[in-house]
Design brief:
Layout: E1 6-9, H1 24-35, E2 40-43, H2 48-52, H3 56-59, E3 63-66, E4 71-73, E5 80-83, H4 88-99, E6 104-110, E7 114-116, H5 118-124, E8 133-134, E9 145-152, H6 157-166, E10 174-176, E11 182-186, H7 192-203, E12 210-214, H8 220-225, E13 228-232, H9 237-242, E14 245-247, H10 254-261
Parallel strand pairs: 1-2, 1-12, 2-3, 7-8, 12-13, 13-14
Antiparallel strand pairs: 3-4, 4-5, 6-7, 6-9, 9-11, 10-11
């Protein structure tokens, strides 16, 4: 029987509900993992501030893999373990792509700030709960960035990826998504698998002894890396097909219940 020695989870839609709600069962599961010496990792498109916003849950994380793998850090010490950034030329070319695509908006996850164009903010539908600044396309490439995101009013994520690939960006960056009508663009060779692999190596845990939870296509590389993968709730069809097993959704505490079924915690 495989001994599961680490757990890695996506955040939004997997263990975090709307408005950053984390259930008592999920928080208790994270606390039990920490008490039992089983490292819990987050692999997310969120920023550092977005993870810290989760309060007590963030305090139970051994490593937070942010920006889809571009940034790894320890919430306990605040230490940055690694970071990768997109070249300024790529950001400027992405801004040109968005400028030529009616109905699109762009955000850049800069090292110093999260920058959003007015169009992106309108498509997002709400202001971020963490620090950000409004920036026009002409100024959006003024700092090193972990990645960027493009939203569109009509085009699906897959259609946006196809347009970006036609423009040559598939060779210059990793393209994926975690929400409809949005694409995340991170440095080449960066994805959740690469980030999680680096984090597990730092912790001294083999991927084959790791359990992963997720629900969207940006979790697929992570699923291919680990020994046991769990599709949560109404996960994307590709994620359900790739998973070892399926579990109930975030509202039904699928994360905690499956960890209990594996014997890693008790309910």
């Amino acid at each position: 029987m495989t001994q599961w020695r680490a757990v890695v989870t996506d955040l939004d839609g997997t263990v975090v509900g709307p408005d950053d709600v984390i259930s008592p069962a999920t928080l208790n599961a994270a606390a039990q993992l920490r008490h039992r010496g089983v490292p819990l990792l987050a692999a997310t498109a969120r920023t550092r501030n977005g993870v810290l916003r989760l309060g007590a849950f963030a305090g139970h994380l051994a490593v937070a893999v942010c920006h889809g793998g571009a940034l790894g850090w320890s919430p306990e010490t605040g230490r940055t373990l690694w970071q990768r950034t997109l070249p300024g030329d790529d950001l400027r070319d992405l801004a040109g792509f968005v400028r030529a695509l009616p109905g699109a908006g762009m955000a850049v996850f800069g090292v110093a700030s999260w920058d959003l164009t007015p169009e992106y903010l309108e498509l997002r539908g709400r202001t971020p709960a963490e620090p950000w600044r409004p920036v026009g396309l002409e100024d959006i490439a003024d700092q090193p960035a972990y990645g960027a995101a493009i939203r569109h009013s009509v085009l699906t994520s897959d259609e946006l990826i196809a347009r970006l690939a036609e423009a040559g960006f598939a060779e210059r960056a990793t393209l994926t998504y975690s929400a409809p009508r949005m694409v995340e663009i991170v440095p080449p060779g960066v994805d959740k698998a690469a980030g999680v692999s680096r984090a597990l190596d730092w912790l001294g845990v083999a991927p084959a002894h790791t359990v992963a939870f997720g629900d969207m296509p940006n979790d697929l590389s992570m699923f291919a890396l680990v020994g046991h993968s769990v599709a949560i709730g109404e996960a994307h069809p590709a994620v359900r097909a790739a998973a070892t097993v399926r579990a109930p959704g975030v509202a039904d505490d699928g994360f905690a219940h499956h960890l209990a079924a594996l014997g890693l915690i008790t309910l």
